[in-house]
């Protein structure tokens, strides 16, 4: 199976003249697509084609994107007619929702800013850790090729690999890890982990960028769902803002709720602003995080959703991943930096339609 379509290997199976191709990514579950056309994309005529093409060209800085779109990355630089290039070189395929998945959802994330200090002192007492030196990451692909993209994380104890410290255990044990800096809020630090990257304004006036580097191997669990199940916040009212307000009103239960999510993220200093899993700096409202089980990193997508009661339809790039992003019709849109971006991201929960744009090929 060595066709040169899409990231890694992609097999497209047509039955006669069927308009329902089934696309299967190597070592990934099947992703069912329905061939479409640009006239069927909501508000395609209103797209900013120049901005969309610029985003695609930037996306092509990644080797993963180049493996998907090959010569189209070079051709995009040469074109002077963005709309004609996009409509003549690509075919949109609508991604089907899996019946057993609660997806078809768009959420948002942003780049938060924290306060910090290079020295541990009140109120800066919560460490932002580098990846621990004793964290062992096992790549299962070498022994089990079908488990590609899966990693086993833990630590060695008495010559045995055991689970790494969870969130609660990490607060009680001295981790074998360097500290980037200390911050003044365990709540803000938690949401920094959820967002994956951010900025820290140090007391000496310096600003540093930090981004995701690794995690402790425990499965991500939503504290929002925990609060809903506990009857603390209604499902209709759950948001980043409502959760923070609940913490403010219930300081004695902060650790209880945070420790529900045993997953813990480790960071590293970066030279630039928010960067996704693709290795590129994220572009507000053009970069999204996806589930790699269904959508290849580096691919170009078209989404239709509502943000702040406004219809949003545009080309976006799959440049990031996230532990909470699960499902085929599921995306997390990067909304930028600062308080306003945080407010929008914290409240964004929209129904979603999603298409993937693939190069035209003669079968």
Per CATH, what is the topology of the largest domain? Barwin-like endoglucanases
Largest sheet: 11 strands, mixed
The topology string of helices and strands comes to EEEHHHHEEEEEEEHEHEEHHHEEEEEHEE
Strand order of the largest sheet: 1-2-3-4-20-16-17-15-18-5-19
Give a description of the structure.
- The chain has 363 residues and is an alpha+beta fold.
- It folds into 2 domains: 10-108 and 278-359, Beta Barrel (Barwin-like endoglucanases), CATH 2.40.40.10; 109-270, Barwin-like endoglucanases (Ribosomal Protein L25, Chain P), CATH 2.40.240.50.
- The protein is built from 10 helices and 20 strands.
- The chain has helices at 49-59, 63-69, 71-78, 82-89, 167-172, 186-195, 223-229, 240-249, 254-260, 339-347; strands at 10-13, 22-25, 30-35, 90-95, 105-111, 113-117, 126-129, 136-139, 151-157, 160-162, 179-183, 197-202, 207-215, 265-270, 287-289, 300-307, 310-320, 330-337, 349-351, 353-359.
- The strands form 3 sheets. An 11-stranded mixed sheet has the order 1-2-3-4-20-16-17-15-18-5-19.
- A hairpin with a 4-residue loop joins β12 (197-202) and β13.
- The longest helix is centred in the first third of the chain and has 11 residues, at 49-59.
- Mean pLDDT is 88; it is low at 1-18.
């Amino acid at each position: 199976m060595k066709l040169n379509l899409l990231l890694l290997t992609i097999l497209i199976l047509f039955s006669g003249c069927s308009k329902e191709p089934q696309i299967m990514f190597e070592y990934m579950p099947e992703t069912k697509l329905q061939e479409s056309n640009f006239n069927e994309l909501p508000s395609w005529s209103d797209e900013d084609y120049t901005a969309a093409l610029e985003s695609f060209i930037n996306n092509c800085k990644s080797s993963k994107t180049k493996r998907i779109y090959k010569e189209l990355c070079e051709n995009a630089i040469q074109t002077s007619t963005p709309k004609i290039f996009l409509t003549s070189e690509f075919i949109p395929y609508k991604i089907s929702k899996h019946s057993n998945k609660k997806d078809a959802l768009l959420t948002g994330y942003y780049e938060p800013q924290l306060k910090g200090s290079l020295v541990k002192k009140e109120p800066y007492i919560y460490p932002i850790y580098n990846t621990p030196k004793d964290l062992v990451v096992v790549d299962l692909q070498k022994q089990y090729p079908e488990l590609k993209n899966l990693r086993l994380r833990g630590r060695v104890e008495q010559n045995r690999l055991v689970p790494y410290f969870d969130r609660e255990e990490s607060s009680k044990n001295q981790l074998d890890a360097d500290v980037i800096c200390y911050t003044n809020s365990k709540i803000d630090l938690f949401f920094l982990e959820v967002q994956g990257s951010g900025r820290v304004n140090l007391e000496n006036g310096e600003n540093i960028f930090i981004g995701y580097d690794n995690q402790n191997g425990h499965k991500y669990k939503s504290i929002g769902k925990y609060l809903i199940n506990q009857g603390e916040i209604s499902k209709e009212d759950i948001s980043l803002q409502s959760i923070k307000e609940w913490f403010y009103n219930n300081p004695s239960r902060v650790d209880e709720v945070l420790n529900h999510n045993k997953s813990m993220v480790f960071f590293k200093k970066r030279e630039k602003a928010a960067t996704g899993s693709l290795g590129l700096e994220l572009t507000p409202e053009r970069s999204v995080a996806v589930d790699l089980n269904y959508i290849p990193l580096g691919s170009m997508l078209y989404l239709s959703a509502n943000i702040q009661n406004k219809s949003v339809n545009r080309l976006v790039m799959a440049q990031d991943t996230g532990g909470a992003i699960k499902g085929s019709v599921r995306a997390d849109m990067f909304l930028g930096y600062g308080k306003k971006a945080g407010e929008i991201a914290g409240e964004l929960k929209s129904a979603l339609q999603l298409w993937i744009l693939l190069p035209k090929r003669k079968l």
